[in-house]
Amino acid sequence: MSDWPLAIGVLGTLTMLFFFCAGDRFTGVMGGRTPWGIFGFVVSQMVEKGIWIFPGSTPAWYGPSTYVSAMVAGFAGFARLQLTTPEQRANPENDPLSANEHAATAEERLRSYAVSDDLAVLDRAVDDFRTATRRSVGHGSHLVHVCSLIRAVRMRYERLGRLQDLDEAIEAGERADRARGAGQARGRMLCQLSTALRLRYDHLGAADDLARAVAAGREAVRLVPSRSPHFPGTCGQLGAALHSAFLRTDDMAVLEQAVAQVSAAVEWSDARGYRRAADRATLCYLLVQRGKRTGDLVDIDRAVQLGREALEPLAPGEALFATCLSNLGLALRTRHGLRAGADRKPPTEDLDEAISLSERALGTAPADAPERAVYQVVAALALRDRGRYDTSRTAGGGSAGPGKLDLALDAARAAATHPRADVPTRMRAGLLWSDIAASAARYQDAVTAFETVIALLPRLAGRELRRADQEDRLGRYTGIAADAAACALSEGAPERAVAMLELGRGVLLSRELDLRADIGELRARKPSLAREFEELRVALAEGRAERPAAGAADSRSRRREEGERWDVLLREIRSLDGLADFAGPPSPQRLLAGAAEGAVVYLNVSRYRSDAVIIAPDGIRSVPLRVTPDEAAHQQRTLDAALDARDGEEAERAAAVHEVLGWLWDTLAEPVLNALKDLHGAHRGPGLPRVWWVPTGSLALLPVHAAGHRGGTRSLLDRVISSYTPTVRSLATARAARAAPARPRAPLAVTMSSTPGAGPLSGAEAEARMVQGLFPGTVRLTGADATRERVLSALPHHAWAHFACHTATDPGVPSRSGLLLHDHRRHLLTVEDVSALDLGSPELAYLSSCDTARTAPRHADEAIHLASAFQLAGYRQVIATLWRVEDEVSSVFAEKVYAELAEAVRSDAPVDAAAAVRRATLAVRELCPNRPQFWASYLHVGC
Question: Lowest CB count within 10 Å: 276, 291, 625, 646, which one?
């Protein structure tokens, strides 16, 4: 036999060995192992037998070698069957070759989608990747297919803004990660998972998503080797996750880490002679953020350079083209702003180019794409700056500015109302819209903008979030309601001002009140809706009480769906005749009717204007106040410094507190009392007139009820009986509870003279004995008996509750503040615990503890503290404190309050805790008139 048939026979034998022994990755590329393996075996046998075109005999070694090779190939195939993983054997769709084919088809479709923006093509690509993922479980290619699926589903989220896509991407990634795996494939998958988690955090605000995004990103960077072409993308996505972490924490060190990661990606590509637009665009954006914080023009100049370099390799229509245009526009607009700070007449070339780039970005982006709202915000910023610059440069205001401002308003308005943009982007756009309009004295437009923003607040703090995340998100937008009310007052619409103060403050409080709405009338008129309301509020209450583990996707999705159903149901109920106010703030008519008991006064402080908005029986009116937010914050800091001081003379601290009280009288109390002179002059009831205060912003942390000067009667304590309410709706709810049947007044007294890990409270036991002496039926829980569970179990059985114990405050998450009971190291009795109670209509909670009506400034508008929690639990009246009180003073104050209350009970008179607090305050003031820190802390909430 000649050499060429023999060579073909050997090649056939080697082909058989290769395809039966090689891995799936290699054989899948060639179309499968079995056909090629059999083909190689047949060729080798034809050569040996001298069949067809292979005449002649083969060498003696040839036959045995082909048989041995066939045995090896057969053994390899048999071993391969035995070595399949349990996942592969349990998977009825196990077909790695088909998986590879579907993945290849999906990649082709993604390339087609990038050119056509055809969503049907993208959907089919996602379906193909799903099939590839299902059919490759347990195989080495599985992580690659999961990575591709996450990328495709994420692309669909970025195009449509549907959270369900991110949920699917994250679930697929975490399911694959649980199966583990090593090397670069897992690193690439973790990079995509990190991106999906970061996007969901940016959309919803769940801290656990952000933490997992950063952790997955760091692990991805560790697993993907620096020689891999996927390394720069992995670094870039970690940088994006760290940027989101910076925005949450405001920690510049985190921003520096983000810049370092993306800089490493840029340097990697530069060293290899090519430029990745994505990395340069991201680094451009990060440097803008750092430059704005530090005022460093070097960062901004570098950002502009990177923005231009990012655009160089891109053509219009490519995926990143519009983003790169917008980022460069943002960098140019920021550079103009920084130069304006140093030069009163900076050139406008940067602004003009920023506007042009933004217009090009908007011309490229599809009209319904979520990222279009981001480009509109950048455009609105640049147009606003140019409009203001033109106005300032033109004598008498000129005509150039208003045209640009109109365009800026249009862009911001479009972004704020974009149906597919995420809520934070729409919020930023709405606030920009309101700022542009208010600054141009277009108050009607500003009010509309604020109404749009306020309507988004409940969605900003979505029901699927944990309570801590809800509070964090709302705390980032404090002061919106005050600005909105100020613009409404400038427009001459006090009713709209009140509506926005109600809807824009106490968002979480209102959400809880929604769940407790009275459905008697609804049940009589529409039983089916009443049943649905009952079922859904039970489900929402149970969901609120859940403590889901991080990544509990099913629980989170269910709560999101329940929240959406709830919103639809409320709209349907409110569409019925006579139920427009159902589970909502009181109508203007109800507000005026409630004012018959006493005026309700919002103390509204805004950067635009400040007013006392008074709800009285004769209507709603405003009284101008000469105070700014900065002045109010200064007074709050002055008070805090005096109360926190441990050094220096007691008299100096007292003088500082007196100064704050005097400022409150001159600035707030006296103008309001002058406006109420006629109403109070007509007061004919027993005692002094009543006023309910609703302070906003920093004023909520100040003792408005104790405003006044030393000596004489220039003091609120001498003129009116003061109470507070977080919102008028909560006050209306408390008033409605008075119609409930009276309950036995045997108090529950919870006292902790000795608390593990805390100092002694010598007066606590004396308070308990005093309460028990006045009310013999008092039930006492003290010491080891005063545990969280026992207190929660006892509260429903008592109309009155008295607490004398330490408190713990958490400024970052105020709902985690609480009362220190015996088991507080394991189970603190928190604000969240108390808020979740629905006790019916108990009458009085006396919180003889420190800081029970205080929260952090950023949460002042939400009124998240123990006093509001007990009111939400059902207590009509709550006695609380604004700051730390001395143990001896607490005992004296409690004795005087309860003496008043006991006298009212004995004489069968209404229990007026507000009047009792006022008289007790006057009594302590008389004992120590020069120590206002002892008597100005106590206040009354409710009615």
Answer: 646
